[in-house]
């Protein structure tokens, strides 16, 4: 499939995923979201943590918030050795096994520097090295410079991201930071497609989700919504070496409608309404029960009091790697279901249990 054939703005999705922003340092992503949403919404504001909220005023009294986090997993420089190697502190959940021989970007105050995560050649490893458990503490970044030059260029606290382009691979989009830039992208696409909603819609691009849902928790206090939706990626263990019951979701089977994850149990009325909408509009969909992992849904659900909450998810293979992959039809299905949910929120649904 060529990107010209896609029903959504693939170039914008690439820009969002290839641009870098770790928890607490989402500035570059926030600038793109503000640029894209300013002309699509009635107001747009940011807060002291960096959450960005774009509001489409409705004709009724209902208020709805949709949250998608801007941050990606990454690192912060915690030490620079005398020889010029960087030691890292993880920002978010990394499986250190996937980091060997990765190219990274070190973001300093003055410039972005390319580095590589060192990996010794297999010829030099003994049996105990091959069987060892890798941790982020073992990782180092080589900048190809001597110690004095690195000391002048890099400071403790500079952030580090992996380097990867986003591309089409058959019917899949693959790259880094699809978790969760694909959801930020969906917020933008939804704003473009919404037309005179009854409810006032707050489209929230949140911060610091990967380190504890922090932005959404703060936002849940600031916005008094009648219903909240989280928007995020979810596990698709639909490849080899997984049993069918461990799949969670499967690529190409449609939008995930969350029932639960380890941080939230969604409101039954919300997820039943989403399912009924998907069936009525013939939007491909699948139920999602995620055994481990949380989303901004939980941050919104009770931060400011009891709020009915649900979530729509993008089935994603290889989460928290640089080769995350999502089916193009699932991207469109999530956007379609999100727009359907927002344009039909009119205050007539009683979410109390």
Provide a descriptive summary of the structure in words.
- This protein is an alpha+beta fold and 353 residues long.
- The chain has 2 domains: 3-72 and 176-343, Aminopeptidase (3-Layer(aba) Sandwich); 74-162, Elongation Factor Tu (Ef-tu), domain 3.
- The chain is built from 9 helices and 17 strands.
- It has an 8-stranded mixed β-sheet, with helices on both faces. Strands 4-5-8-7-6-9 form a 6-stranded antiparallel barrel. The chain has a 3-stranded antiparallel β-sheet with strand order 10-11-17.
- Strand 6 (103-107) and strand 7 form a beta hairpin.
- The longest helix is centred in the middle third of the chain and has 16 residues, at 178-193.
- The model has no long low-confidence stretch (mean pLDDT 94).
Structure at a glance:
The chain has 353 residues and is of the alpha+beta class.
**Biggest beta sheet attributes:** 8 strands, mixed
Give the low-pLDDT segments.
Answer: none
Percent of residues in helical segments? Answer: 25-40%
Overall domain count: 2
> How far apart are the first and last residues' alpha carbons, in Å?
45 Å
Describe the strand arrangement of the main beta sheet, using strand numbers: 1-2-12-3-13-16-14-15
Regarding quaternary structure, what we see is single chain
Dominant shape = globular
Q: Assign the CATH topology of the largest domain.
A: Aminopeptidase
């Amino acid at each position: 499939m060529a990107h010209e054939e896609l029903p959504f703005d693939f170039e914008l999705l690439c820009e969002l995923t290839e641009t870098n922003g770790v928890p607490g340092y989402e500035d570059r992503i926030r600038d793109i979201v503000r640029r894209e949403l300013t002309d699509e919404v009635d107001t747009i504001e940011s807060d002291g943590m960096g959450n960005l909220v774009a509001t489409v005023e409705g004709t009724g009294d209902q208020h709805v918030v949709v949250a998608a986090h801007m941050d990606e997993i990454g690192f912060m420089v915690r030490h620079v050795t005398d020889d010029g190697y960087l030691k890292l502190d993880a920002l978010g959940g990394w499986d250190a096994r996937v980091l060997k021989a990765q190219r990274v970007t070190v973001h300093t105050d003055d410039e972005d520097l390319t580095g590589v995560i060192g990996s010794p050649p297999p010829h030099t490893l003994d049996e105990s090295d091959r069987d060892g458990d890798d941790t982020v503490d073992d990782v180092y970044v080589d900048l190809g410079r001597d110690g004095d030059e690195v000391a002048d260029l890099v400071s403790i606290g500079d952030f580090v991201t992996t380097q990867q382009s986003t591309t089409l691979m058959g019917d899949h989009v693959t790259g880094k930071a699809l978790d969760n830039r694909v959801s930020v992208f969906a917020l933008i696409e939804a704003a473009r497609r919404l037309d005179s909603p009854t409810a006032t819609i707050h489209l929230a691009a949140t911060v610091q989700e990967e380190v504890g849902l922090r932005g959404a928790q703060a936002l849940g206090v600031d916005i008094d919504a009648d219903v909240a939706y989280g928007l995020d990626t979810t596990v698709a263990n639909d490849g080899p070496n997984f049993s069918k019951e461990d799949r969670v979701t499967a690529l190409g089977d449609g939008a995930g409608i969350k029932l639960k994850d380890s941080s939230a149990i969604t409101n039954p009325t919300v997820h039943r309404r989403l399912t009924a909408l998907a069936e009525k509009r013939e939007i491909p969909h699948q139920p999602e029960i995620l055994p481990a992992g949380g989303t901004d849904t939980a941050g919104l659900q009770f931060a400011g009091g009891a709020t009915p909450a649900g979530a729509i998810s993008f089935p994603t293979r290889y989460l928290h790697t640089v080769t995350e992959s999502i089916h193009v039809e699932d991207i469109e299905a999530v956007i379609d279901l999100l727009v359907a949910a927002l344009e039909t929120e009119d205050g007539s649904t009683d979410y109390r249990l």
